[in-house]
Specification:
The chain is of the alpha/beta class. It contains 15 helices and 21 strands. Strands 5, 6, 13, 14, 15, 16, 17, 18, 20 and 21 form a 10-stranded mixed sheet that branches. Strand 14 and strand 15 form a beta hairpin.
Length: about 525
């Protein structure tokens, strides 16, 4: 075996040191690396890919062929970590529009009101964002990238209490040649298929307990040129599936240079086809016709690409009794979601903020256990997006979605019932619409939907519609529980709030509302 050392040894006091190594140069790795540059003299990003010179797809991130929405919270954090980066994206042709509906949203309970956004709406592709983040980072002299290098394990002290670097294989060399890179801190950001549990086991630690929801998710995606005479204030659309009968979802995401990124998704082993007619048929069978109507008049500019991933997976690194000094894990390596909720990059950005917080505390008052504190704090941060993704996926249990490593959370039926009522109200009451969109955009926590003023609106709408035929047994039960628990009417009196005058009368949003007037001939 040919073992070389690529960098000098940088062993110093743990956690505030000279050299940090990040395994994986995708979004989680890049954002973590940005934070590490504030605390380490040198940061090395190691990736098994070579990075493209221009914004483009790359092999290690096959998901970039599928629509990637950066949620409002993620955009906010990335803008803070890289001031001015949004200007660069704009200059590269990212869609920038004001006074538009960023995205029309068709929920399982119907279409949400089309809310125009006063502030700028900025949209771009996954590969454009990643390329700019990487470019900004690698212009810093303290950052270097080792590309075409696959990390194969962790290096440790003889007593195996501390990780002191990584072992890697350069992909252009013989299969059995390895190198080592020493580090004070190793950050695993190698994604959904990370080998971190195996690496820990090889060092004598336990593998983290895992929670998985096997949702049988499939994607098929394609790029289109946006038709030139399409309504200017219509930017994109998300059409949710309708449990338990329609597993099809779809979205049109506007990106740079007047293009659309169109992704169709399926649940519980229902995979959207990747052939021309099957793709269109899937779009036609969505719960709302707008997406189909839009893409059949748009020009396809790429082949259709498929992607299948069985699970949402949460690794509970924070629950391990023993944990080595000098090693942490972040991003999809810890928590990989069903991508349909668009939370991955934003959660990686939140992970980076947790890292910044823990490193700053460690710098102010150094004490052992930094790594465990980080993993515990991360677990708390991940809890909300994990709840959103998994609670929604578990609506498909009767269709074969399964859970392992955990039991369904107590009160899940109540949660589903309450969310149905929220969606029902969000379709006609813009205060609830905004509250719901804020939760989806991760600018507000899920529990904000239980704030008294939202709860009252939801209940008031629910009580009015309780006798309507489309109110299911689950929702009725939820209304009953809420009334029983909170005494909804007494609560309303107590708070002296009446929503009567502010809530629009109950009505259905016409479907034509979504696509507006597009005078294109039908193919
Ligand atoms: C189909 C799909 C659609 C998605 N849509 C969205 C969306 O709309 N919005 C959103 O926010 N998120 C979305 N995501 C999630 C998002 O892609 C990830 O959450 C995000 O990229 C952060 O992941 P990561 O950096 O942890 O890992 P990844 O992006 O998977 O990157 C891992 C990196 O590690 C490298 N690597 C792996 N193993 C090694 C090794 N042993 N040695 C060296 N390098 C290694 C890889 O080459 C890669 O660069 C989607 C994901 C999928 C699969």
């Amino acid at each position: 075996m040919n073992t070389q050392t690529l960098s000098p040894s940088y062993f110093s006091t743990p956690n505030t040191g000279r050299h940090a190594v990040v395994i994986g140069g995708s979004m989680a790795g890049l954002l973590a690396a940005r934070v590490l540059t504030d605390y380490f003299e040198q940061v090395t990003i190691i990736d098994r890919d070579t990075f493209p010179d221009l914004p483009d797809h790359r092999k290690g991130v096959p998901q970039s062929h599928h629509a990637h929405a950066l949620l409002a919270r993620g955009q906010e954090i990335i803008d803070r970590l890289f001031p001015g980066i949004m200007d660069e994206l704009r200059a590269e042709g990212a869609l920038s529009a004001c006074g538009v509906v960023p995205v029309a949203f068709v929920t399982p309970k119907g279409a949400l009101p089309l809310l125009k956004q006063d502030e700028e709406f900025l949209a771009f592709s996954r590969f454009l964002l990643e390329w700019h983040v990487r470019r900004r980072l690698t212009t810093q002299t303290s950052v270097r990238c080792l590309t075409n290098c696959e990390v194969t394990g962790l290096l440790s002290t003889p007593e195996r209490t501390q990780v002191i670097g990584v072992r890697l294989h350069h992909r252009d060399e013989d299969a059995d040649s390895t190198h080592s890179v020493a580090a004070d801190l190793v950050v695993d950001a190698s994604g959904r298929h990370s080998k971190a549990p195996e690496w820990l086991v090889r060092l004598g630690y336990s593998a983290p307990p895992e929670e998985t929801i096997n949702s049988g998710i499939g994607y098929a995606s394609r790029f289109y040129a946006k038709p030139s005479n399409f309504p200017a204030d219509w930017q994109g659309i998300i059409i949710n599936n309708r449990p338990p009968h329609n597993p099809r979802a779809g979205l049109i995401l506007p990106i740079e240079h007047g293009r659309w990124h169109v992704t169709l998704g399926g649940f519980a082993g229902n995979y959207p086809p990747t052939d021309e007619s099957g793709f269109l048929q899937w779009a036609r069978d969505l719960a709302d016709p707008s997406l189909f109507e839009a893409i059949r008049i748009a020009e396809p500019i790429s082949p259709i690409r498929g992607y299948r991933t069985p699970q949402n997976r949460l690794r509970h690194f924070e629950r391990l009794d023993r944990w080595p000094i000098g090693f942490i894990a972040t991003g999809d390596s810890v928590c990989a979601f069903n991508p349909i909720y668009g939370q991955g990059m934003t959660t990686s950005a939140l992970d980076a903020l947790v890292l910044a917080d823990c490193l700053s505390q460690q710098q102010r008052s150094p004490k052992p256990g930094f790594e465990r504190r980080f993993q515990k704090q991360l677990a708390k941060t991940i809890a909300a997006p994990w709840l959103i993704a998994t609670a929604e996926d578990l609506r498909w249990r009767s269709q074969g979605v399964t859970l392992s490593g955990a039991r369904p959370r107590i009160g899940l039926g109540f949660l589903h019932g309450y969310m149905n009522l929220v969606l029902q109200q969000a379709c006609e009451d813009t205060t609830v619409t905004r509250a719901y969109i804020n939760v989806l955009g991760m600018t507000a926590p899920p529990q904000s939907l239980m704030q008294p003023h939202i709860l009252l609106r939801v209940l008031s709408g629910a009580l009015k519609s309780i006798n309507e035929s489309d109110v299911g047994a689950g929702e009725r039960k939820t209304i009953f529980i809420l009334r029983y628990l909170n005494g909804a009417r007494r609560l309303a009196l107590y708070l002296k709030v009446s929503t009567e005058t502010q809530v629009a009368p109950r009505r259905k949003v016409p479907r034509s509302h979504l696509l507006m007037n597009c005078d294109q001939p039908r193919n």
